[in-house]
Specification:
Blueprint lengths: L2 E7 L4 H11 L6 E8 L5 H8 L4 E3 L8 H16 L3 E4 L8 H6 L4 E5 L14 H10 L3 E8 L9 E8 L6 H25 L3 E4 L2 E4 L4
Parallel strand pairs: 1-2, 1-4, 2-3, 4-5
Antiparallel strand pairs: 5-6, 6-7, 8-9
Helix pairs in contact: 1-6, 5-6
The structure holds 5-O-phosphono-beta-D-ribofuranosylamine.
């Protein structure tokens, strides 16, 4: 039985598109994108879902007074309406509380645009990540796919991929290079490994099992 994948989005949805394209190439082994849930009604990611024939839902963050209430509603939607086996945060910009991670232990994954533990944590998201990398003067950066826990960007690391930082890079140019060379490759790979039950969490480490 293939696993049902729910993708959480808030913006442009280029990582969602990478998952949709990978699915189209048969690369999401034993997984199917069953829903896209956005925290904002105008996210272009919802257009991408519609074009791919994937049910889209909007759960506006501002409809809830706090993160806990929002997380409870999202968790209900995921479990009762979508029946998700895997939750993928792809450019999702809303803080969630522990209820989701308790409902989905080691079944929520996130893509972060740096080599964690560099340039991550509360407030370090989107373009800010690349601004900090350039400010620090690193020669390589990249992306990380990790399991999501209560602590921001600190869950067990599943996959990482590096990309060069080049002279004259702006945050936008570096972001695009990391998206193209890292994010859009790593996320489908990690999702496919999860759906094949090939990810084994051992403390902080994630072991990738050979084909079962
Ligand atoms: C990407 O850099 C992603 O790593 C970060 O949000 C940015 C936009 O993602 N989490 P997307 O284009 O909405 O997938």
């Amino acid at each position: 039985m293939s696993k049902r994948i729910a993708v959480l989005v808030s913006g442009g949805g280029t990582n969602l598109q990478a998952l949709i394209d990978a699915q189209g190439r048969g690369e999401l082994v034993n997984g199917r994108i069953s829903a896209v849930i956005s925290s904002t009604p105008d996210a272009f990611a919802l257009e991408r879902a519609k074009n791919a024939g994937i049910p889209g839902y909007v759960l506006p963050r501002w409809d809830f007074s706090d993160s806990r209430g929002y997380t409870a509603a999202l968790t209900r939607l995921l479990r009762e309406t979508v029946g998700a086996d895997l939750v993928v945060m792809a450019g999702f910009m809303t803080i969630l509380t522990e209820e989701l991670f308790q409902a989905y232990p080691n079944a929520v994954i996130n893509i972060h645009p740096s080599l964690i533990p560099s340039f991550c944590g509360v407030g370090c998201y989107g373009l800010h990540v690349h601004e900090k990398a350039l400010e620090y003067g690193v020669k390589i950066s990249g992306a990380t796919v990790h399991f999501v826990t209560e602590e921001c960007d600190a869950g067990p690391i599943i996959l990482q991929k590096a990309a060069e930082v080049l002279p004259g890079d702006t945050p936008e140019v570096l972001q695009r290079r990391i998206m193209e060379q890292c994010e859009w490759k790593l996320l489908p790979q990690a999702v496919s490994l999860f759906c094949q039950d090939r990810l084994k969490v051992e403390g902080r480490a994630v072991r990738i099992l050979d084909c079962l």
